[in-house]
Specification:
The chain is mostly helical. It has one domain. The protein has helices spanning 2-33, 39-65, 78-83, 85-114, 118-139, 142-145.
């Protein structure tokens, strides 16, 4: 079960990263070209929101079945988790920053819907999704992801 969920989480991450990049680029192009915000722009940002929330759900399941997560183990102290780079990454840093990234995307999507002008819609999506992209790229365990 762990291997299946880990693989799903890893492969779905490609879609997540691709969609966030597409949304950021779409927001930037919309700003620069001074385009009118249309239904396709909404669909791109909405699809990005959906795939990131699915990734979050998969990640939460993985958090509870992963042998790398030691919070629930009675034989491992918190100080041991914090002193071990791998354990700290999978127990604290990766989940926390990925949750922040999903929150940024959710808030950005929600705020952009309330904007009236196309420019402010594109700017809101661009800023929030770019910050989320930076958080995601910063916390992807690259050494493990490629294996």
């Amino acid at each position: 079960m762990y291997t299946t969920i880990r693989n799903l989480h890893s492969y779905w991450a490609y879609l997540v990263v691709a969609m966030i990049i597409i949304s950021v680029v779409n927001g930037l192009i919309g700003l620069i070209a001074k385009r009118h915000y249309n239904n396709n722009d909404l669909r791109i940002s909405l699809f990005t929101l959906i795939v990131t929330h699915i990734q979050l759900a998969i990640g939460i399941i993985l958090f509870f079945v992963s042998p790398l997560v030691k919070w629930f183990s009675s034989d491992v102290k918190v100080s041991e988790i914090m002193q071990n780079d791998t354990f700290r990454m999978f127990n604290l840093e990766h989940p926390l920053l990925m949750i922040i990234a999903v929150i940024l995307i959710t808030v950005g999507f929600s705020k952009h819907k309330k904007r009236l002008s196309s420019k402010s819609k594109f700017r809101t999506i661009f800023i929030f999704y770019l910050l989320a992209l930076l958080a995601v790229l910063l916390m992807i365990p690259w050494d493990i992801w490629w294996n």
